[in-house]
Amino acid sequence: MNSLQLDIHLINLALHERDFAYPGDYGPGKSNQPLVQFHHISEWCDYLLTLQIKGPKVPKIHIDAYHAALRVMFLAWVEPACIKTAELQALRSLEGALRGVYFQPIYQKKLTKNPKLKREDFSKKLGLGQLLDHMVEHDDLSTSLHSQSNRDYGNALSTIRNRLAHGDPFDTMPWGGLLESVREVMIHAYRNFPGPANYLLQTCDELGKCSRETGS
After folding, report:
1. pLDDT in tens, 120-150
2. Among 47, 117, 150, 162, which residue's beta carbon has the most beta carbons within 10 A?
3. pTM for this one?
4. How far is the C-alpha of 143 from the C-alpha of 125, rounded, in Å?
5. β-bridge pairing 17-23 and 35-40
């Protein structure tokens, strides 16, 4: 079990009680609170713990990367500027996790059109948007999590990731529901994976030689 630990004693006791607001994950079938209010750091801690990933299916390396985002988000209680750093880390963890599942199938599909395409060249061009597109088209990802409509409105996960990575000066407000969406997509991607062994097999080529995606 990859349990997340957050220690409120890392925060100065004088700052434990304050008014803190964060955008909720609201919409059809979700909370009707567009803004969630917290009054004690323990409430903020409890909320973040509900966002952790539990269970054996998602490989630990990706869970740890995602949980790092939650740890940084925890510090936003003291310094709200940490929110943007946490959001980018969450999206980085998502992109890495999705590569573990979908890199090889997408690469094989591209090879049918371009047999000379090198793995290294393709890896440099494969982005979060392509990975999410593949999930919608081939792995039953809900269009509520990724669609052209999301792109048009600027709230697609891939669009948010690019704006954060490239320092969009107008992207200053927290994205409500982003952490929930990242967790949901990651869990969906690994829902059929019983353990790390299958994860490694998924990212090896047909000759049995592991690619860089496995870290070997």
Report:
1. 999 999 999 999 999 999 999 998 888 877 7
2. 150
3. 0.84
4. 23
5. antiparallel
